[in-house]
């Protein structure tokens, strides 16, 4: 490391030259932008979100701004030139002496597959050891291979984050950090740990997950203050008995390792609240492990015998295949030739057999919401799942990979089947699928995949196929034994693949459509083939006669054979063009090319038009539309499209938290049909959304999925004067250019081709008194004023909490759990705001704050939750706000002559209202 320091010193000495060389460009980067954001915000300097962060910092240092002396929080991206980055960091100790939090992270840029890229940081200048007040150092997503020598000299360091680097070991000098309470070294290449780790007596949280650790030093049991230890996704086969001495331990994560045994005393630790042992090699555990509710043992071969015969003495034991359980913040995982079993955070499972991958690879996944371009559906198919994307696309494996997809069970199961559909060589194909039920209402579709692409689960009519050889063959329908196709010898010169589907139509719906009691139809027969469009010899098709009709009693003038050639939607009557052979139960005819065929028995003349309507009826779903407003926040509107038979149950569940008008009249939608929700009469969508087209919310209807969205609305009208009575209208397909304020004319169009479907009223109540002051600009929310905390310990206002919410990002679930919110409530928030991350964060934070209003210690609970969630930067800022509030409170007391020693009546003290600090 000495060589490293000497190499950095010339860069530090050349910092002035770097400043001069970049001053003109830096001034332009800082000052010339028409909307350049302010760099200094109080004691915070955030340069990681804008290009040229090093130039900006060098420019500020060159100006010798006195505000730099007050900066306590600095964020800088490491996606910079390494030389420029080193020269910039060399300026930090002298220019920012009060620095308490330093974030030097990569990860702001992504590669072609969407993965975060590491920053270029490999070294730190030795001068950073002079930051005597530094308490928080974040070096995540960089290229560190060894720990910089200056870090163990930062004796005041409280939190050290080194995740997503290339570290293979940690130095013994790390034990010289007497104030360290949090250490995160996840997603590195650690194989061993230093024995000096046990000297960190103040350490409360240690995260070493996603490394290559095979053993732990016994000294780890000396961490007397340790409350949380994460060793998940390593290669541990055993644990030291010294772990039984961690008397302060509350959370212990050991999932996805190779453990064959665990110390029996772990379960008796006095404060332990969770012990996660999922996905290990445990075949036997002490009985108390099985009876303790906080121990998780899923994915272990408990009670199973060792596989195969005993190995000869001296033969090394080959560990079983590792099991990985991914959390919500991970979108990739490694696969080696050894193979593994993986459970994604969304519940999807994959099994890579040994030898499936010839070399180590990284698999990336993403779960897409369904949309037409990703969901290829046939006329009678139904979507049962979201779309899973696995990368790298098209990569072939040495052995097929097992895939388990969760799906919603179809409501209609007669003569239908569930299959996994995938994109293969620019065409969609259905894989051989097996269904499994793990628990009530939890269904899996299992298949074997030779390569990665997009995958989804669909329900389709039962499909039968065969390979037709030149010798001829017979194809039967497994769901309708009376439907068969006979291929004579010589019908084809080369073998070709043919496929058959049969669709039923209920006689009651047909009679209602035709208004004819005696009308009947046969099952609809759909035939496809590969190869040439026609056969060399006629093929015989057999269809059952319509129900209630026999070949002995029917009136041939009422029997019609209809034909359709997709994609055309017209049905042609070809009865006169073919020779119909009738038996007692069946009708036979011959064709030379395949299409769709349907037998009708009716007195009507224009059968083709009726067949088109009947075919549309087969594919239409009857639904109702609802628009509800949240009781505590009327600007939050829930829009949902529900099957007609689920409306009452859903409303009964929702009306505890929402209120609104009655559901719309029944409308009919096709699977995968687009429709829009347009807010009218003075009400608009509050924020930009990816699903918002010209102010109208876009839906895609899938009958088995939840077609629901929550939207924040606003108005330009004066709500102080009166309530705003608006409406939301639902339209099919393309929304009209000018949405009519009055939908009376559209209400007259009740046919399925009408664009307008329904209009429901929306009311934003009048704001009274202080309600208007509680509205947050730009968020569309209006809650009663809220102050968290008290005068002596400091207040957090709505503005402060909104600032915290705006920066939590994807860390909000961890913060919520550390705040004490149950996991079930987190799932409910995700469900209610599934398309709105900001809504999830705001709802979580403010609903918690409302419950904590008036309770002592709430602000410190928030600070502690932020620290435990790796957000030391936010925790420090909240502490600074609270400290400023306390100073203003003391100044107010002195100003009014109520200092200590000058007693005053309690009522007067209670009436004193300090000015809250603003973030």
Model description:
The structure is a single chain. The protein has 919 residues and is an alpha+beta fold. 19% of the residues lie in helices and 28% in strands. It has a 12-stranded mixed β-sheet, sandwiched between helices. Strands 14, 17, 18, 19, 21, 22 and 25 form a 7-stranded antiparallel β-sheet that branches. Strands 26, 29, 30, 31, 33, 34 and 37 form a 7-stranded antiparallel β-sheet that branches. β2 (44-47), α3 (53-63) and β3 form a beta-alpha-beta unit. α1 (2-13) packs across α4 (82-95) and α11 packs across α14 (858-868). The two termini are 41 Å apart. 37% of the residues are buried.
Topology diagram in text:
Elements: H1 2-13, H2 15-31, E1 40-41, E2 44-47, H3 53-63, E3 73-77, H4 82-95, E4 101-105, E5 136-138, E6 159-161, E7 182-184, E8 205-207, E9 228-230, E10 251-253, E11 274-276, H5 287-291, E12 295-296, E13 323-325, E14 332-335, E15 340-343, E16 349-352, E17 361-368, E18 382-383, E19 387-391, E20 396-407, E21 416-424, E22 427-431, E23 434-439, E24 442-451, E25 454-461, E26 463-468, E27 473-476, E28 484-487, E29 496-503, H6 507-514, E30 520-521, E31 524-529, E32 534-544, E33 559-564, E34 572-573, E35 581-582, E36 586-593, E37 596-601, H7 607-619, E38 620-630, E39 636-643, H8 647-654, E40 658-659, E41 667-670, E42 674-680, E43 683-685, E44 692-693, E45 696-700, E46 707-715, E47 724-732, H9 744-747, E48 756-764, E49 788-790, E50 794-796, H10 798-808, H11 812-818, H12 823-832, H13 837-852, H14 858-868, H15 872-895, H16 906-911
Helix pairs in contact: 1-4, 2-3, 3-4, 6-7, 10-13, 11-14, 12-13, 14-15
């Amino acid at each position: 490391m000495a060589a490293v320091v000497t190499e950095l010193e010339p860069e530090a000495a050349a910092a002035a030259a770097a400043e001069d060389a970049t001053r003109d460009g830096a001034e332009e980067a800082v000052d010339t932008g028409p909307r350049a954001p302010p760099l200094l915000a109080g004691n915070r300097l955030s340069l990681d979100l804008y290009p040229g962060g090093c130039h900006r910092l060098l420019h500020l240092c060159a100006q010798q701004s006195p505000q730099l002396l007050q900066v306590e929080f600095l964020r800088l991206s490491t996606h910079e030139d390494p030389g420029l980055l080193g020269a910039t960091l060399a300026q930090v100790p002298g220019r920012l002496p009060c620095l308490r939090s330093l974030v030097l992270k990569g990860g702001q840029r992504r590669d072609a597959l969407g993965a975060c890229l590491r920053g270029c940081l490999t070294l730190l200048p030795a001068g950073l050891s002079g930051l005597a007040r530094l308490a928080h150092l974040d070096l995540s997503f960089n290229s560190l291979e060894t720990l910089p020598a200056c870090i163990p000299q930062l004796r005041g360091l409280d939190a050290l984050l080194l995740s997503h680097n290339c570290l293979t070991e940690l130095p013994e000098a790390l034990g010289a950090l007497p104030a360290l309470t949090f250490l995160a070294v996840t997603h590195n290449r650690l194989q061993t740990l230093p024995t000096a780790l046990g000297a960190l007596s103040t350490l409360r949280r240690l995260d070493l997950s996603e490394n290559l650790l095979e053993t732990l030093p016994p000294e780890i049991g000396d961490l007397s203050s340790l409350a949380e230890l994460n060793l998940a996704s390593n290669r541990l086969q055993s644990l030291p008995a010294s772990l039984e001495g961690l008397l302060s331990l509350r959370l212990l994560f050991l999932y996805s390792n190779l453990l064959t045994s665990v110390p029996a005393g772990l379960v008796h630790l006095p404060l332990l609240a969770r012990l996660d042992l999922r996905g290990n090699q445990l075949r036997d555990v002490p009985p108390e492990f099985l009876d303790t509710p906080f121990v998780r043992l899923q994915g272990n071969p408990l009670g199973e015998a060792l596989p195969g015969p005993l190995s000869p003495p001296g033969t090394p034991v080959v560990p079983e295949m590792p099991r990985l359980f991914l959390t919500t913040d991970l979108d990739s995982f490694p696969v080696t030739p050894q193979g593994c079993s993986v459970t994604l955070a969304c519940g999807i499972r994959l099994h890579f057999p040994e030898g499936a991958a010839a070399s180590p690879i990284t698999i990336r996944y993403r779960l897409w919401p369904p949309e037409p371009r990703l969901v290829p559906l046939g006329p009678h198919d139904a979507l049962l799942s979201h779309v899973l994307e696995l990368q790298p696309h098209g990569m072939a494996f040495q052995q097929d990979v097992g895939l388990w997809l969760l799906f919603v069970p179809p409501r209609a199961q007669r003569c239908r089947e569930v299959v996994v559909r995938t994109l293969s060589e620019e065409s969609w194909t259905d894989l051989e699928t097996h269904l499994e039920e793990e628990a009530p209402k939890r269904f899996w579709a299992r298949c074997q995949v030779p390569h990665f692409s997009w995958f989804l689960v669909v329900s389709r009519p039962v499909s039968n196929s065969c390979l037709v050889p030149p010798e001829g063959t017979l194809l039967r329908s497994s769901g309708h034994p009376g439907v068969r196709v006979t291929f004579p010898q010589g019908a084809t010169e080369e073998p070709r693949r043919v496929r058959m589907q049969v669709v039923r139509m209920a006689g009651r719906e047909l009679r209602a459509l035709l208004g004819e009691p005696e009308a009947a139809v046969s099952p609809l027969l759909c035939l496809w083939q590969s190869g040439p469009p026609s056969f060399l010899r006629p093929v015989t098709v057999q269809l059952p006669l319509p129900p209630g009709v026999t070949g002995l009693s029917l009136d041939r003038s009422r029997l019609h054979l209809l034909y359709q050639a997709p994609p055309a939607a017209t049905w042609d009557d070809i009865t006169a063009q073919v020779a119909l052979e009738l038996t007692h139960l069946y009708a036979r005819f011959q064709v030379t090319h395949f299409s769709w065929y349907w037998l009708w028995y009716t007195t009507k003349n224009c059968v083709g038009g009726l067949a088109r309507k009947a075919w549309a009826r087969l594919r239409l779903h009857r639904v109702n539309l609802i628009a509800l407003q949240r009781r505590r926040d009327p600007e939050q509107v829930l829009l949902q499209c529900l099957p007609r038979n689920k409306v009452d149950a859903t409303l009964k569940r929702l009306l505890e938290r929402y209120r609104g008008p009655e559901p719309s009249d029944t409308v009919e939608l096709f699977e995968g049909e687009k429709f829009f929700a347009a807010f009218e009469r003075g009400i608009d969508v509050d924020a930009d959304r990816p699903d918002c087209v010209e102010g109208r919310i876009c839906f895609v209807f899938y009958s088995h999925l939840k077609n629901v969205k929550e939207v924040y609305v606003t108005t330009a009208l004066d709500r102080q004067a009166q309530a705003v009575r608006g409406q939301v209208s639902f339209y099919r397909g393309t929304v009209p250019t000018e949405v009519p304020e009055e939908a009376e004319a559209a209400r007259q169009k009740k046919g399925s081709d009408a664009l307008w479907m329904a209009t429901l009223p929306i009311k934003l109540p009048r704001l009274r008194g202080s309600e208007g002051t509680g509205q947050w600009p730009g968020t569309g929310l209006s809650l009663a004023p809220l102050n968290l905390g008290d005068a002596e310990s400091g207040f957090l206002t709505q503005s402060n909490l909104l600032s915290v919410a705006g920066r939590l990002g994807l860390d909000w679930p961890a913060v919520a759990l550390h705040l004490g919110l149950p996991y079930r409530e987190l799932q409910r928030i995700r469900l209610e705001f599934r398309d709105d991350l900001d809504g999830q964060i705001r709802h979580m934070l403010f609903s918690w704050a409302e419950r904590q209003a008036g309770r002592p210690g709430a602000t410190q609970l928030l600070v502690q939750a932020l620290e435990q969630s790796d957000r030391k930067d936010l925790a420090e800022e909240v502490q600074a706000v609270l400290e400023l509030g306390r100073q203003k409170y003391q100044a107010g007391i002195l100003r009014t002559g109520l200092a200590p020693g000058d007693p005053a009546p309690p009522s007067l003290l209670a009436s004193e209202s300090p000015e809250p600090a603003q973030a």
